[in-house]
Amino acid sequence: EYNSTSREYYHPNREKTQEYSVAQTGYKKLDSNKKSILVVEDNQELNEFIKSILINDFNVFCAYNGKEGLEQALKHMPDLIISDIMMPYMSGNEMCKKIKSNQLTCHIPVIILTVKSNESSQLESLLLGADDYVFKPFNSQLLLIKIKNILSLKDQLKNNFIKSLLLTDDHSEEKTDPILAGKMRQICIDS
Known about the structure:
Blueprint: E1 2-3, E2 8-11, E3 14-17, E4 21-23, E5 26-28, E6 36-40, H1 44-54, E7 59-63, H2 66-76, E8 80-83, H3 92-101, E9 110-114, H4 119-127, E10 132-135, H5 140-166, H6 178-190
Parallel strand pairs: 6-7, 6-8, 8-9, 9-10
Antiparallel strand pairs: 1-2, 2-3, 4-5
Helix pairs in contact: 2-3, 5-6
Protein backbone atom coordinates (compact mmCIF):
# COMPACT_ATOMS: atom_id res chain seq x y z
CA GLU A 1 0.00 0.00 0.00
CA TYR A 2 1.27 3.48 -0.84
CA ASN A 3 1.41 6.25 1.73
CA SER A 4 1.45 9.52 -0.25
CA THR A 5 2.62 11.59 2.71
CA SER A 6 5.89 9.72 3.27
CA ARG A 7 6.21 8.04 -0.16
CA GLU A 8 6.47 4.63 1.48
CA TYR A 9 5.52 1.29 0.02
CA TYR A 10 4.86 -1.84 1.94
CA HIS A 11 5.53 -5.16 0.33
CA PRO A 12 4.57 -8.32 2.26
CA ASN A 13 7.96 -9.95 1.65
CA ARG A 14 10.02 -6.83 2.36
CA GLU A 15 10.28 -4.14 5.01
CA LYS A 16 8.80 -0.70 4.47
CA THR A 17 11.02 1.21 2.12
CA GLN A 18 11.45 4.84 1.21
CA GLU A 19 12.19 3.76 -2.34
CA TYR A 20 9.39 3.85 -4.86
CA SER A 21 8.88 3.09 -8.50
CA VAL A 22 7.84 5.95 -10.72
CA ALA A 23 6.71 5.63 -14.31
CA GLN A 24 4.84 8.16 -16.42
CA THR A 25 1.59 6.82 -15.02
CA GLY A 26 2.66 7.66 -11.43
CA TYR A 27 3.59 5.47 -8.49
CA LYS A 28 3.71 1.69 -8.70
CA LYS A 29 3.74 -0.87 -5.94
CA LEU A 30 6.44 -3.49 -5.80
CA ASP A 31 5.53 -6.62 -7.73
CA SER A 32 6.61 -9.88 -6.09
CA ASN A 33 6.71 -11.55 -9.53
CA LYS A 34 9.38 -9.16 -10.82
CA LYS A 35 13.10 -9.26 -10.20
CA SER A 36 14.57 -6.24 -8.44
CA ILE A 37 17.33 -3.92 -9.58
CA LEU A 38 19.25 -1.35 -7.58
CA VAL A 39 20.36 1.70 -9.56
CA VAL A 40 23.26 3.58 -7.97
CA GLU A 41 23.85 6.85 -9.81
CA ASP A 42 24.57 10.28 -8.31
CA ASN A 43 23.10 12.20 -11.25
CA GLN A 44 19.41 12.35 -10.36
CA GLU A 45 18.26 12.92 -13.94
CA LEU A 46 20.20 9.89 -15.21
CA ASN A 47 19.05 7.85 -12.21
CA GLU A 48 15.42 8.63 -13.11
CA PHE A 49 16.07 7.87 -16.79
CA ILE A 50 17.55 4.44 -15.99
CA LYS A 51 14.62 3.77 -13.66
CA SER A 52 12.17 4.66 -16.46
CA ILE A 53 13.86 2.12 -18.75
CA LEU A 54 13.59 -0.66 -16.17
CA ILE A 55 10.30 0.04 -14.41
CA ASN A 56 8.06 -2.01 -16.70
CA ASP A 57 10.09 -5.18 -16.24
CA PHE A 58 11.60 -4.83 -12.77
CA ASN A 59 11.13 -3.49 -9.27
CA VAL A 60 13.60 -0.62 -9.06
CA PHE A 61 15.36 0.78 -6.00
CA CYS A 62 17.58 3.85 -6.23
CA ALA A 63 20.60 5.16 -4.41
CA TYR A 64 22.59 8.31 -5.14
CA ASN A 65 26.09 7.35 -3.96
CA GLY A 66 28.11 4.21 -3.27
CA LYS A 67 27.61 4.30 0.50
CA GLU A 68 23.84 4.51 0.10
CA GLY A 69 24.02 1.84 -2.61
CA LEU A 70 25.79 -0.59 -0.29
CA GLU A 71 23.18 0.04 2.42
CA GLN A 72 20.32 -0.48 -0.06
CA ALA A 73 21.95 -3.67 -1.39
CA LEU A 74 22.12 -5.13 2.12
CA LYS A 75 18.57 -4.01 2.91
CA HIS A 76 16.82 -5.16 -0.29
CA MET A 77 19.13 -7.88 -1.65
CA PRO A 78 18.39 -6.95 -5.28
CA ASP A 79 18.79 -9.39 -8.13
CA LEU A 80 21.18 -7.03 -9.93
CA ILE A 81 22.95 -3.70 -9.34
CA ILE A 82 23.72 -1.02 -11.92
CA SER A 83 26.26 1.50 -10.67
CA ASP A 84 28.18 4.55 -11.80
CA ILE A 85 31.89 4.66 -10.84
CA MET A 86 32.48 8.28 -9.84
CA MET A 87 30.19 9.17 -6.93
CA PRO A 88 30.51 10.96 -3.59
CA TYR A 89 31.16 9.14 -0.27
CA MET A 90 32.06 5.83 -1.94
CA SER A 91 32.91 5.09 -5.57
CA GLY A 92 31.10 2.46 -7.59
CA ASN A 93 34.28 0.38 -7.65
CA GLU A 94 34.60 0.50 -3.84
CA MET A 95 30.94 -0.46 -3.50
CA CYS A 96 31.38 -3.31 -5.99
CA LYS A 97 34.42 -4.61 -4.09
CA LYS A 98 32.48 -4.55 -0.79
CA ILE A 99 29.45 -6.26 -2.36
CA LYS A 100 31.56 -8.98 -3.97
CA SER A 101 33.56 -9.61 -0.77
CA ASN A 102 30.47 -9.92 1.47
CA GLN A 103 29.11 -13.45 1.74
CA LEU A 104 25.53 -12.12 1.86
CA THR A 105 25.81 -10.12 -1.36
CA CYS A 106 28.62 -11.70 -3.41
CA HIS A 107 26.11 -13.46 -5.68
CA ILE A 108 24.53 -10.19 -6.87
CA PRO A 109 25.64 -9.27 -10.40
CA VAL A 110 27.00 -5.72 -10.80
CA ILE A 111 27.00 -3.74 -14.03
CA ILE A 112 29.25 -0.68 -14.02
CA LEU A 113 27.84 2.19 -16.08
CA THR A 114 30.34 5.01 -16.65
CA VAL A 115 31.87 7.64 -18.91
CA LYS A 116 35.33 6.20 -18.19
CA SER A 117 36.00 4.44 -21.47
CA ASN A 118 39.68 3.64 -21.04
CA GLU A 119 40.77 0.04 -20.75
CA SER A 120 42.47 0.49 -17.37
CA SER A 121 39.20 1.67 -15.74
CA GLN A 122 37.32 -1.19 -17.33
CA LEU A 123 39.95 -3.69 -16.21
CA GLU A 124 39.93 -2.31 -12.65
CA SER A 125 36.14 -2.67 -12.35
CA LEU A 126 36.14 -6.18 -13.78
CA LEU A 127 38.99 -7.26 -11.49
CA LEU A 128 36.99 -5.98 -8.51
CA GLY A 129 34.16 -8.32 -9.49
CA ALA A 130 31.92 -6.31 -11.82
CA ASP A 131 30.02 -8.61 -14.17
CA ASP A 132 29.83 -6.12 -17.03
CA TYR A 133 30.96 -2.62 -17.96
CA VAL A 134 28.76 -0.30 -20.05
CA PHE A 135 29.90 3.06 -21.43
CA LYS A 136 27.87 6.27 -21.22
CA PRO A 137 26.12 7.35 -23.31
CA PHE A 138 24.52 3.95 -23.67
CA ASN A 139 21.88 2.30 -25.79
CA SER A 140 18.94 1.51 -23.46
CA GLN A 141 17.95 -1.57 -25.47
CA LEU A 142 21.50 -2.93 -25.20
CA LEU A 143 21.49 -2.33 -21.42
CA LEU A 144 18.14 -4.15 -21.05
CA ILE A 145 19.39 -7.14 -23.05
CA LYS A 146 22.57 -7.35 -20.96
CA ILE A 147 20.50 -7.22 -17.76
CA LYS A 148 18.11 -9.91 -18.94
CA ASN A 149 20.97 -12.15 -20.11
CA ILE A 150 22.83 -11.84 -16.80
CA LEU A 151 19.67 -12.57 -14.81
CA SER A 152 18.80 -15.50 -17.06
CA LEU A 153 22.26 -16.99 -16.56
CA LYS A 154 21.95 -16.49 -12.79
CA ASP A 155 18.59 -18.33 -12.81
CA GLN A 156 20.03 -21.18 -14.92
CA LEU A 157 22.95 -21.61 -12.51
CA LYS A 158 20.62 -21.59 -9.52
CA ASN A 159 18.29 -24.14 -11.13
CA ASN A 160 21.21 -26.40 -12.08
CA PHE A 161 22.51 -26.22 -8.51
CA ILE A 162 19.08 -27.09 -7.10
CA LYS A 163 18.77 -30.03 -9.52
CA SER A 164 22.21 -31.29 -8.51
CA LEU A 165 21.11 -31.21 -4.85
CA LEU A 166 17.98 -33.16 -5.66
CA LEU A 167 19.82 -35.86 -7.59
CA THR A 168 21.43 -38.55 -5.51
CA ASP A 169 23.72 -41.21 -6.85
CA ASP A 170 22.89 -44.45 -5.04
CA HIS A 171 26.22 -45.91 -6.16
CA SER A 172 28.24 -43.12 -4.58
CA GLU A 173 30.18 -43.92 -1.44
CA GLU A 174 29.67 -40.38 -0.15
CA LYS A 175 26.05 -39.58 0.54
CA THR A 176 24.83 -36.02 0.95
CA ASP A 177 23.65 -35.21 4.44
CA PRO A 178 19.83 -35.00 3.96
CA ILE A 179 19.43 -32.21 6.54
CA LEU A 180 22.18 -30.13 4.95
CA ALA A 181 20.79 -30.80 1.47
CA GLY A 182 17.31 -29.73 2.62
CA LYS A 183 18.64 -26.49 4.09
CA MET A 184 20.66 -25.74 0.96
CA ARG A 185 17.67 -26.48 -1.25
CA GLN A 186 15.48 -24.09 0.79
CA ILE A 187 18.10 -21.32 0.65
CA CYS A 188 18.30 -21.65 -3.14
CA ILE A 189 14.54 -21.64 -3.54
CA ASP A 190 14.15 -18.59 -1.27
CA SER A 191 16.80 -16.51 -3.07
